[in-house]
Design brief:
271 residues, Rossmann fold, four-stranded mixed β-sheet, 8 helices, globular
Length: 271
């Protein structure tokens, strides 16, 4: 058992994240260089850490954000590639970080949450069904907030876990203000012609074989995921960051983003 694992067993859950971050910070000098720069901690590295799972379906079906990818995980602050991309999109393509806003952050990413919490005019509510360190216990299929409450909802890498995903999509739409934005990133197959899902009581081994993770209900296909969102009432834009690379680390991808990850920008119609 490692020292970090031993300490985690002795400390309350709310301290596990800071402990892990401290452990990585202590060794991040091993990655020092000038090839990549983290948008959150400002660290400069010759490389970042790989992250992702190696199950066959994630490779065979070309699942972006699911399989192993190099330079995904910052060795200093532990931010993920998808987290950096969402932040840069909000910073460069919206005015949300430059005005007062009410934000619901579901299953919150730690570094992105830190940025939002620092904003003097943001009211940020965090929610999760299982995590004990968030503001509210939240079921995305039955959100306890009133209609038209939030300017922004962040709910990334959640929908693939939710059996009633369309119900969750509609609930998020309900609590958004007209014109508000939901960021609903998910692992996505570039190869599948249609989303593969199974809501039945199937063994964990079968879920891993088909979906690449024991608690996933599906693998979304990029071919039909936007349409599923539109059917739930969203206006959906697919933003490809590499078409405007100057704001996203340049052509050499200095921000270490996933080179194939599209941003699914989901807006609530104004009328």
């Amino acid at each position: 058992m490692s020292l970090t694992t031993t300490l985690k067993s002795l400390l309350p859950e709310r301290l596990h994240g800071p402990l892990k971050e401290a452990a990585y910070r202590a060794t991040s000098f091993l990655y020092a260089g000038d090839r990549y720069e983290c948008v959150f901690c400002g660290g400069r590295f010759k490389k970042l850490l790989p992250r992702g799972l190696s199950y066959g379906v994630l490779v065979d079906q070309h699942v972006v954000g699911g399989g192993i990818r190099d330079n995904a995980f910052c060795p200093r602050c532990l931010s993920y590639d998808r987290e950096r991309l969402v932040y840069l999109y909000l910073k460069n393509e919206t005015d949300l970080l430059r005005r007062p806003a009410k934000v619901l952050h579901v299953a919150p990413e730690r570094q992105l949450l830190k940025v939002l919490r620092r904003h003097p005019d943001f009211q940020v509510t965090t929610g999760d069904l299982f995590c004990k360190t968030v503001d509210v216990k939240l079921d995305v299929t039955a959100i306890q907030f009133a209609d038209h409450t939030f300017d922004l909802v962040l709910c990334n890498h959640v929908m693939e876990h939710v059996p009633e995903d369309r119900k969750a999509m509609r609930e998020i739409l309900r609590v958004l203000k007209p014109g508000g934005i939901a960021m609903l990133q998910t692992p996505i197959s570039l190869k599948m012609a249609a989303t593969d899902e199974d809501l039945g009581d199937i063994p964990e081994s079968e879920r891993i074989r088909r979906f690449g993770q024991k608690d996933h209900c599906r693998i979304y296909a990029q071919a039909d995921y936007p349409q599923r969102l539109r059917e739930c009432g969203y206006e959906v834009e697919l933003f490809r960051w590499w078409e405007t690379p100057g704001h996203y680390g340049g052509k050499d991808n200095r921000s270490a983003l996933n080179a194939e990850e599209v941003v699914f920008v989901c807006r609530k119609p104004v009328a």
